[in-house]
Amino acid sequence: MSFADTGLSEDVLRAVADSGYDTPTPIQEKAIPTVLMGRDILGCAQTGTGKTASFTLPMIDILAHGRAKMRMPRSLILEPTRELATQVAENFDKYGKYNKLNKALLIGGTDMKAQSKVLDSGADVLIATPGRLLDMFERGHLLMRDVKILVIDEADRMLDMGFIPDIEKIVSMLPPIRQTLFFSATMAPPIKKLADKFLMNPKEISVSAPASTAETVTQGLAILKPGAQHRGMDGKKKLKRDALRKMISHEDVRDAIVFCNRKTDIAVVYKSLCTHGYKAGQLHGDMSQPARTETLQKFKDKEFNILVCSDVAARGLDIPNLSHVFNYDVPINAEDYVHRIGRTGRAGNEGHAYSLALPSDTKFVTQIEQLIGKEIPRLSLDTFDTGELSSEDVRGGRSERGSRRPQGDKRERSGRGGRGGRPKRDDTSEAKPEVNAETKSVEAVEQPAEKAAEKPVQKATDKPQEKAESIPAKERDNRSRGRGGRDRNDKRGRSGHKKNTERRLREIHNEICDGHMPAFLMREPSVPKKEEEKKKPAAKRRAPRRKPSAKKAAAPKAEAPQSED
Fold this sequence. Notes:
Oligomer: single chain
Largest sheet: 7 strands, parallel
CATH architecture of the domain at 3-206: 3-Layer(aba) Sandwich
């Protein structure tokens, strides 16, 4: 079957022929006619089988008829990473060069003003990451009422990166009547559930088993056995770096990608390779977008042949004729292994994927082998001790880094050993009851005279011990405080504390002054007059003199009556 049999227009077929393709891949052969029919699609295929062209080619034909309005795109493609969004935009430029379509790319790390200008002129195709898309929508630079086609690419990666709430918010802004396309290399149950929520009577297209690896990729796993000189985490990482350089020098590496789980390890591995004379570059999420784009372009232009990166480059990136992939760290997520090794062996070419592991990585290796349905072939390296995975962790238990203590290595619970251990019980220390077989009654065994003598006999005149319940709560609290632990409201406790403080101060003065107390320290402090007045009895205090009120002062004094005599 050729591309002409899929129903594409002549302009699109001519662009495909200019790119050097004449036969569609299985996913393209089944997906392109269905997209042209306007049906929803749930597509699952191996990475590197051409999923991007399976929706970009028919979209160019559908969008060729019509015109976009200001700030109202006609189609939307959501991508998990900036690099993947940039690659899809390049495919639209390559396959749509004979069609007059406007394209807008909304990704983080770039100028928003330039992106808003493209939206103002009208965009037929909008390719975006969820974060920047929502930012532009909230700023009022974007309207989603005219979107007719929605594409969610690498849906499983969207789920892993936590974009599902953002996708649900974006889908709620779109018109209900639309065509939705789901594409992914793996199809986990959560993705299936999400697809049922967004898609309407979709056609499922699966050209291979989900999460399967390509047959053109030669896989290998080297399990390193740390020696006495590789103690601690730093020693194990040094062992892995030495083994990585050994594998690169042993293989005929034309160009390779080295995947690490942590950004700190990326910098260390990159410096190690550069120090030993390898041409290498690094790529991770903390780099600015211009630096990431420049590094990726230099790698494609063969300015250096080894790229040390994180899982940012594990999804959808198409590096032509990549010969090798090295997993410096075993991926924590088993599905990431499928995407990592899918960077090589693309389009039917031969590729090699080798991984380095420690016995502590048993859990992750087991999950990967269960996912791909086969065992990864084991490798042996010269001058390196290789071992086997720990059999304890086959079912996903604890690894060697947090393994349980073996049964035969438990601490003996003696009287002085073990944390919280109980002393061993001596069978001769206590008298155990015996059961009489005839009477079926319990009889106590007689204790020796020495044991009986040791046990104190309680007299009838002795007072029984007080039960904790009969003691008042306040008195019980005071008793539990121990010596000197009096209640806060107890004056005797406060006075005792004051005396202790004065005694300690005198000792300090004696130590400082070498046993000679100066006279000014022995002098009693003078009490202010206000303090002396307070010490006087209340009856002897003089009442303050009150001033007469204004009314009484203004009233005239009454004269005494004069006698008539």
